[in-house]
Amino acid sequence: MLYTIIKALHIIFMVSYFAGIFYLVRIFVYYKDTDEFAEEKKKILREQYTFMARRLWNIITVPAGIIMAVCGIVMIFLNTGLMKMPWFHLKLTFLIGLAIYHYWCWKKVLKLKELNGETIETPNIKLRQANEIATFILFLVVFTVILKSSVIEYWWQLITGFFVLVFLIMITVKLVNKNKKNK
To answer: What pTM was estimated for this model as a whole?
Structure first.
């Protein structure tokens, strides 16, 4: 029963963490979108976006990430057999990628404060692409956990499917952005 409760908390805080990460990078994009605005409007919006990013990071994303990680570690201690499962090693590999992405987001949050309303040097298209990284990691982790040993057995089909999915998402994003520019 304890393991199931910890697992439920792990999933709940994973959802909260990813919601925070998804929205945080959107805030970076919105901040960058103000480059062409009039100075007064740009200043007001950039202050607001910086405030929102810091609050989102400190109040939702990091606490949810910590609780998610602690629950995950507790589950490993309660079920040591996980460490013997190849699919679990794959999940941990994806989580290392998530940790690197998390670090990148943290550096951007710090940079916003440091910029004090100045322009982000990262091109907008790169921020928009970076916004999709968390989505891809989420797909990889969820499919790995749900499919478990099938991931190892059918790895090439899953990788092919993943790349097709990435391609479709990228095409969809490009079409949406193209339509926005035409309006």
So the answer is: 0.85
Write out pLDDT tens, residues 61-82. Answer: 999 999 999 999 999 999 999 9
- Residues 175, 177: Cα–Cα separation, whole Å: 5
Amino acid at 120: I
172 CB-near residues (< 8 Å, 6+ apart): none
* Separation of alpha carbons 95 and 100, rounded Å: 9
Number of domains in the chain: 1
Q: What pLDDT, in 10s, does the model give residues 21-46?
A: 999 999 999 999 998 899 999 999 99
Question: Taking a C-beta distance cutoff of 8 angstroms, is the pair 138, 145 a contact?
Answer: no
Is 102 strand, coil or helix? helix
Residue 132 structural domain: 2-182
d(CA 45, CA 136): 29
User: Are the C-beta atoms of 123 and 60 separated by less than 8 Å?
Assistant: no
> What length does the chain have?
183
pLDDT at 14 over 70: yes
Q: List the one residue out of 133, 121, 119, 132 whose CA is nearest residue 174.
A: 132
Burial of 17 (0-12, 13-18, 19+ CB in 10 A): buried
